[in-house]
Design a protein that fits this description.
The chain is α/β, with parallel strands linked by helices and 255 residues long. The chain has one domain: TIM Barrel, CATH 3.20.20. It contains nine helices and eight strands.
């Protein structure tokens, strides 16, 4: 254990088990939920989301080794183990972490409100177990954003389960009113009344997964350019909420 625990993580993730949706949803719904199918050589993966699919190269950092020949999975084998993960935090000098989903982030590309709401409930029922295990895990509740009614319903349910933060994509789905629309006022009110803090995660713009995969630029400087591009959505989301007075109207839960 490190001699000094000095930091909190604002961007941690849980990795949903492969069987999460197949065990938590009827087969017809589970087949449409996000899933990753990796190539045998570990170089590429195919992401499937509600009838859409695209291929992407698996980040090289996942296969890189340290001086002892260990991959990231060897160095942190306890990612989904509640006790081992705490040991990893101790070793890194981190007390607590704000925790987002992983494959669940692709849910922003789902176009069926009922499917999205069902998937959010399954993820939230699973992730809350970590927060219940230790106050050092502050898990974010996944909120379905295709309709304001389903969003409000899950905010209220999540608050009753003990969540303190709500994960929102940086923009609603295509064709749904933007964050600066009065349409979303019931959501901000529900978050405020429930005392849930809004947690935007960058790079979560809803999109057609078969046509876009986040690689804005390739070649020299591409990694830096892509990273910068992904931050803009989060900046726009927060700026719109400030500009439309959401923070001023709701002082408790939205922040």
């Amino acid at each position: 254990m490190t001699d000094l625990i000095w930091a909190n993580s604002g961007d941690s993730h849980l990795v949903e088990p492969d069987e999460l949706f197949t065990e938590g949803l009827p087969k017809a719904l589970a087949e449409r939920m996000p899933r990753s199918v990796k190539d045998d050589d570990g170089g590429w993966e195919t992401i499937h989301v509600d009838g859409q699919e695209f291929r992407r190269r698996i980040p090289k950092s996942l296969s890189m080794t340290d001086d002892d020949g260990r991959t990231v999975f060897d160095r942190a084998p306890g990612a989904n183990d509640k006790e081992l993960r705490l040991r990893d935090l101790d070793d890194e000098g981190i007390w607590g972490e704000l925790v987002y989903p992983s494959i669940g982030i692709w849910m922003s590309s789902i176009n069926d409100p009922e499917l999205l709401a069902a998937g959010a409930r399954v993820i939230n029922d699973w992730a809350i177990e970590y927060q219940q295990h230790s106050p050092r895990y502050v898990c974010t509740a996944t909120i379905p954003l295709l309709t304001v009614d389903t969003a409000v319903a899950e905010v209220q349910r999540a608050a009753g389960m003990g969540y303190h933060a709500a994960y929102l994509s940086v923009a609603p789905a295509a064709g749904v009113d933007d964050w600066n629309s009065d349409t979303w006022e019931p959501l901000w009110t529900a978050l405020d009344e429930a005392g849930l803090v809004v947690a935007f995660h960058i790079g979560t713009e809803p999109h057609d997964a078969s046509k876009f995969h986040g690689a804005y630029a390739r070649g020299s400087g591409g990694a830096l350019i892509n990273y910068m591009e992904t931050t803009y959505g989060g900046q726009r989301a927060v700026t719109k909420m400030i500009a439309t007075g959401v923070f001023d109207r709701h002082q408790n839960g939205v922040g």
